[in-house]
Automatic annotation (TrEMBL):
Protein's recorded name: SCO3374 family protein
Organism expressing this protein natively: Streptomyces thermospinosisporus
Length: 203
């Protein structure tokens, strides 16, 4: 039987911001006060990338397959889904390390649908999922958490980093995450390429 991604953790309680808060105020309160993540107010709220975390943006199909191969450690760090894209949160500085890691892993010359988002980037703040949600996150345009961050451990130890950067002992490192994601991105690219009709060159 194929491995599956464990069910999502229980999302944050919007009531923590106070009973009189609006939904947007509750979201801002949770990200800024409970997690310490800088935000850009608006509708939707956006998260500032490159301060507390960086992001690996990949096709959702590749991301789910990579997480299955990284389980159980693969579910220790926050992961969000928006439409057909998955965003894996890694330690700040990870996006800058991505090109060198891909080169070292011998993916440097391969075109992969794998984007590193670092300093200067913004990410839509995922909405909380209902507590009974199970399995894959359902996203119809809005960002949602597949694996929500947990206050107190989301900013450092739980985010994949290079071993030399002082990650928690036994934690999943950035090299393993990038290797798994790059492999699945390549497989998705090959599979989609084979499914496309052959193009007949004009004579």
């Amino acid at each position: 039987m194929a491995p599956t991604v464990p069910p999502p953790r229980r999302p944050f309680e919007s009531a923590s911001a106070g009973a009189e808060s609006t939904p947007l105020e509750g979201v801002l309160h949770w990200y800024e006060n409970a997690l310490g993540w800088p935000t850009v107010p608006g509708d939707p709220v956006r998260l500032v990338v490159g301060v507390r975390f960086d992001v690996l943006d990949v096709p959702a199909e590749a991301g789910y397959a990579a997480l299955c191969r990284l389980t159980p450690a693969g579910c220790a760090f926050p992961v969000a889904v928006q439409g057909d894209r998955m965003r894996l949160l890694v330690a700040a500085g990870g996006a800058e390390e991505l090109p060198g890691l891909l080169e070292w892993l011998e993916w440097g010359d391969v075109r992969l649908d794998l984007v590193g988002m670092g300093a200067g980037c913004l990410m839509e703040a995922p909405a909380p999922m209902p507590a009974p949600a199970r399995g894959r996150a359902r996203s119809r345009g809005a960002a949602v958490w597949l694996r929500p961050p947990e206050p107190g451990c989301e900013g450092t130890a739980s985010l994949p980093t290079l071993p030399a950067m002082g990650g928690r002992a036994g934690a999943l490192d950035l090299t393993r995450v990038v290797s798994a994601v790059a492999t699945q991105c390549h497989r998705v690219r090959l599979r989609r390429g084979c499914a496309q009709p052959a193009v007949v060159p004009a004579l």
